[in-house]
Amino acid sequence: MARLVFLLACALVLSACSSFATAAIVEHSFNVQNLTVNRLCRNQVITAVNGSLPGPTLRVQEGDTLIVHVFNKSPYNLTIHWHGVFQLLSGWADGPEYATQCPIRPGHSYTYKFTITRQEGTLWWHAHVQWLRATVHGALIIRPRSGQKYPFPKPYREVPLILGEWWNANVIDVETQALATGAAPNNSDAYTINGQPGDLYPCSSNHTYRLNVVQGKTYLLRIINAALNNQLFFKIANHKFTVVAVDASYTNPYITDVVVVAPGQTTDVLMTADQTTGQYYMAALAYASAANVSFDNTTTTGIIDYQGSTTSRRPIMPVLPAFNDTPTAHKFFTNLTGLVTSPFWMPVPRQVDEHMFITVGLGISACDAPRNGSCQGPFGLKFAASMNNASFQFPTKLSMLEAFFRNVGGVYTTDFPNAPPVQFDYTNANNSMNRALLVTTKSTKVKKVKFNATVEMVMQNTALIGIENHPIHLHGFNFYVLAQGFGNYNPAVDSNKFNFVNPQERNTIAVPVGGWAVVRFRANNPGVWLMHCHLDVHLPWGLATAFVVEDGPTPSTRLPPPPPDFPKC
């Protein structure tokens, strides 16, 4: 018996050593500065990383440590967020300005260092200051460790496809103007695929992304929605997809001819080049669920070019959904399920410690910078947004994470409510302009939870100002999507729809237009973790809060000190 125990112990040690041996240190440098690019018949100065749009694709294996030296040579404050990375015990590297760090000032630098743990698939990185992520972004590809395989047939090639949004203007000026007037910002002028608008736009025949394919081969397309303010439908003419992962979490294979991605989300699909040799358009256009609200109603395209194609005809165009095709969007989002045989799957925690009901929507707040006595939002006030009628305001003197670690008061309060202050018919359009329900005030309220607590959130969209789909992103964790639906959430009926067997795991949920979603996660990572709408028009309006997760009982469950070069406010 003793010999058996000894042999088992040796095996465990060898396994652990082997695991560590496969991990590597992957190091990059980001030089962030102005770049002049030509798009849509004009030159435009943008902020970019290493002189490219999109920025560099980072490729790592699960277990690797990623080190990125960021040199801010731009005229703006800067942080980088590693969207979807758990940041286990490395919350100092998460990136959102004044949530986990103070910004990297122009002319300064900061080194992000963290380990990719228990995650495989497609994530991405982007600026988390103002609207800079419009052009400061790139893919983060996490492959299995050496010796491990994908839970699907190995593709012939892997291709990141970053869907973006383009303005014929300085995006910082677009945001600043909107905040100054209290009105909605100007719409974008184009969408892009890997930085290129496509040949349906003026002066863009040479600004069209091309993917050369070999007939009969299967490609893993890693689709990322880096657009600021729009969910997107994506199709390739005459081709079907098999979804195999979302937000770096494996799914059961789901066959579809259309993909829907909300800002912040990623979707991995297998596509087999099984059509006649020729050229086929890939295309993306907005899924715009808010009625009577203007949006960028253009279409970006790329070209699938089969090897050996000699056609001079225009590529075949896919039949795209209508911009307001909610049934198609809902069908896609609700047909995804988690792959329980994947290497990092964990069963859904059944005992809930914190129940939260969170209303999500727009509103109005006081006009603090009036022009001619009023702002340009409803009732002469300014547009705002809130969760449970608390419109989030970021601190400016110290990051919330540093305040948590050093026990500094006055930076945030821990009184974010578990329910809205007033119950009403949340999705009734007759409440759209009910001024008594619209007015909100600014605060920095967060939700404090104990280490390892299980949190369940009902996210309820409202009809205030307008009914729309809100993509909500949680930093530091994945959550299980237990159920989604339309109308007001009814626990007596809707709790019976919960999927405890194989729910999809995500870090960003598109809460259905005029509807609700129920998610659940385990707060097993100490620190301060932002939760916010990933429409950049809504984040500065206040559609956010944060979770403060207390330290655990042992040194390995407590937040370590910040690195020596941590940015000072």
UniProtKB/TrEMBL annotation:
PROSITE patterns xrefs: MULTICOPPER_OXIDASE1, MULTICOPPER_OXIDASE2, PROKAR_LIPOPROTEIN
InterPro entries: Cu-oxidase-like_N (IPR011707), Cu-oxidase_2nd (IPR001117), Cu-oxidase_C (IPR011706), Cu-oxidase_fam (IPR045087), Cu_oxidase_CS (IPR033138), Cu_oxidase_Cu_BS (IPR002355), Cupredoxin (IPR008972), CuRO_1_LCC (IPR034288)
Class in the EC hierarchy, top level: oxidoreductase
Keywords: Apoplast, Copper, Glycoprotein, Lignin degradation, Metal-binding, Oxidoreductase, Repeat, Secreted, Signal
Compartments reported by the entry: Secreted, Extracellular space, Apoplast
UniProt cross-references to Gene3D superfamilies, sorted A to Z: Cupredoxins - blue copper proteins
Catalytic activities: 4 hydroquinone + O2 = 4 benzosemiquinone + 2 H2O
Cofactor note: Binds 4 Cu cations per monomer.
EC numbers on record: 1.10.3.2
Domain Plastocyanin-like: from-to ranges: 32-146, 158-309, 416-551
Cofactor(s) demanded: Cu cation
Signal peptide bounds: 1-23
Entries under Pfam families matching the protein: Cu-oxidase, Cu-oxidase_2, Cu-oxidase_3
Main location: secreted
PANTHER family the UniProt entry points to: LACCASE, MULTI-COPPER OXIDASE
Role summary: Lignin degradation and detoxification of lignin-derived products.
Family note: Belongs to the multicopper oxidase family.
Name of the featured protein: Laccase
